[in-house]
Amino acid sequence: MSGVGFFGTYAYEHGQWKTLSEGELPPLDEPSLWIDIHDSDITSVVYAPAGPGSGVAYLGLTPRTYFENPNASDPTDVLREAAGLAAWWALQNSGDATAKQAEILGYLASDENPDDFSLDEEQDVEDVDVFVELKTAQFLTALDLPLPAELSR
Fold first, then answer.
1. DSSP sequence for 107-134
2. DSSP, residue by residue, 4-39
3. End-to-end Cα, the chain, rounded Å
4. DSSP label at residue 75
5. Can you tell me the distance from the alpha carbon of 25 to that of 50, in angstroms, rounded to the nearest whole number?
6. How many C-alpha atoms does 101 have within 13 Å on its Cβ side?
7. CA dihedral 30, 99, 82, 47 (to 10 degrees)
8. Which helix (H) or strand (E) segment is 30 a member of?
9. Other CB atoms closer than 10 Å to residue 139's CB: what's the count?
10. Angstrom distance (rounded) from CA 47 to CA 30
11. CB 90 within 8 A of CB 103
């Protein structure tokens, strides 16, 4: 891959975003959401309270897939994380958490064998599937959250 992708770390608490140093994860008051975008390929999402989820989900690629290393992150369970994120959403919104869970599920990354995917030069790929910051903006909109300033450009 050539070029440098997008990097950004943000924390959502008390109804607003704050920009953090890359990878910084300070203690946050619940309910909170922390996102760390790595090189336009991975967005780590840490949410609390975790509810039925583990409190960690990924958009784009998982670290296990991206780094081709099973020790780079715990195995992902997208159904569990979608349930956890829907429960997190339901704490702050009225609405159908089951429908929200189904919507969220479409954004979450699962572990893949790196040999099973490649971006063919001829393949027609949507920008949202290449630049995880675009998918992250859509994901945050699905959670009914405002966007950090750097993602709303």
1. TB-----GGG----TTS---HHHH-HHH
2. ----EEEEEETTEEEEESTT-----PSSEEEEEEET
3. 24
4. P
5. 16
6. 17
7. -10
8. none
9. 22
10. 9
11. no
Question: What is the tens place of the pLDDT at every residue in 82-95?
Answer: 999 999 999 999 98
3-state secondary structure of 9: strand
| SS3 state at 90 | helix
* Residue 77 CB partners (closer than 8 Å, separation 6+): 54
What tokens were used for 32? 């909170």
Q: pLDDT, tens digit, for every residue of 6-24?
A: 999 999 999 999 999 988 8
The mean pLDDT value for 16-37 works out to 93
Cα 106-151-73 angle, rounded to 5 deg: 50
What residues have CB less than 8 Å from 130, skipping those under 6 apart?
A: 40, 119
Q: What is the spatial distance between Cα 10 and Cα 151, in angstroms, rounded to a whole number?
A: 10
pTM assigned to the model:
0.88
Task: Find, among 29, 34, 30, 27, the residue nearest to 12 by Cα.
Answer: 34
